[in-house]
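Hi team,

Filling in the usual template for the complex we talked about on Friday. All components are listed, including any nucleic acid strands or ligand strings, so the model treats them as one assembly.

SUBMITTER: L.P.
PURPOSE: interface mapping
COMPONENTS: two
RESIDUES: 561
SEQUENCES:
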Amino acid sequence: MSASFAFPPSFRRSVITIVVTAAVFAFAPLVAGSFALHVLTISFYFVILAASWNLLAGYTGQFSLAHHAFAAIGAYTSGLLGYHYGVPAWIGIPSGVVMAALFGVILGRLVLRMRAIYLAIATWAFAETVHIYLTADYQFTRGELGLSVKPLYGSVDPLPYYFTFLALTVLVLIGLRALIDSPIGYFMRAIKDDELRAKSLGIDTTRVKIAVFSISSAIAGLAGAFYGHFIVLLSPQMIDFSEMAKIVIMVVIGGFGTFLGPVIGAAPVQMVMTYLQKYGEWNLAIFALIVIVLMRFSMEGLASLFTPLWRNLWARHDA
Amino acid sequence: MPLALETIRLVKRFGGLLAANDVSLAVEHGEIRGLIGPNGAGKTTLVNLVTGVHPPDMGDVKLGGQSLRGCAMHEIARLGLVRSFQVTRLFGNMTVSENLMTSFFARRNRATGDGTKQIGNMLELTRLGPLADTQAKKLSGGQRALLQMACGFMVPGSCYVLDEPFAGINPVIKDAIIDMIVDVNRRHGATFLVVSHEMAIVRRLCRQVTVMMEGRVAAQGTLDEVARLPEVIAGYLGKALE
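RESULT (copied from the run log):
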């Protein structure tokens, strides 16, 4: 795999679009109030989770239901290191990423030969195990009492956190785009379409699948670790199944298996859910209904509306 | 010089069915060998044993003298043994270009050069250029077969095992596929094992054919020689070949 490789022109275009969009969002604090910034920050957190889950489920075809657990592993690793041993965030966060990646490799290996629903059930069982552990071992994890985590910055003013998560989102999205446009990205999509053929062409599908599982888990761990230092109080609620359902809803509404999908799906869903919170679990049920309808009729979700726009935008460059 | 492809006393049993019964086959470097036989004779099983889809119960496969025992499918492919599937398999949601690129990335090495340029060559050769950005699942049967073949030639292999590359395809595309096989055979000295029912094409391409029946090698020789053997005629239900 040492032969030279050049990114397609579409890669540069994606990077430009991501950076320009982020630049627009950098002005949001001028118009948005404190609470709105808080909601946007959480939306960025979910953009990262949704995009990294989409890498695994949408591109590679491994429909994992443990993604929220990896975010929690990242968050709790950094949180517990800080709480018990006084470890600072700049060591805690990378440790959280490494821990999530390690669990990702292990779980990825275990579910390697499982397909569709079997993989979903096995990964869900893993998430439940983590959930139960965090609740049960309350002397160490503080369980339902909640684990208090030191804020990343001196105060809990949302502004610096908003910019931190904005920057993190940009970095993760560019990284994911680079991965998707690289040979591994081709292999991922090949595995989703026809794994036997991928093998027959010479693709080490085992290696690719485990690599993708650990990369997407590491990204979830990264987002989770920062998230912990932002909301400053962790609880096993983070691995409630509704959190995973939310990620799936975001990706399917945005566009399953499209790059744009999770990016445009996450924020609206998070915002609507935040403002509809007074109706409790009912808003999840309504979104679930939307997902069922979308999965039946169009897997490309909102992203399909943008595809012609995207083509027109760059058409003159191709001419 | 070792043989390009050799199977040594391969045995494979599926439940009560003996799909490969002591199959020994030797294909020389640069040869285009035909593999014929009635339906259910074990041709596809042999292809699957050679390419690592199924491990044999007994026996061994050698590629250029090297044993493939214990090799995973992708390792066999990276050693230069390329196959096509009887029921065309492509990455349906990927475009024609992306299918070609994936094949290129999968087996590329230091010597393979520029993938984009190679895609251009293949699109020209197959005349699939106007469909370069079309999803593979939207192609016609013949176009799919042509694309599958072109994918195999993105990085030249040393040995090709083609399972019914001409089945259900219009004559123009058949000729295009034949031209590609002959071209790769001449230019790169690649070896071919071609499973086919199309006797006219087998006669044109293959000096030697191997006949399989009921899991065994029943005969070997030129097509005209084997077509006269009583056992072969009987195997094809008394119908003379062609």
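MY TAKE: The first strand of chain B starts at residue 5 and ends at 14. Chain B touches chain A at residues 51, 53, 72-74, 77-78, 83, 85, 89-94, 98, 101-103, 105-110, 112, 116, 151 (CB under 8 Å).

Thanks, L.
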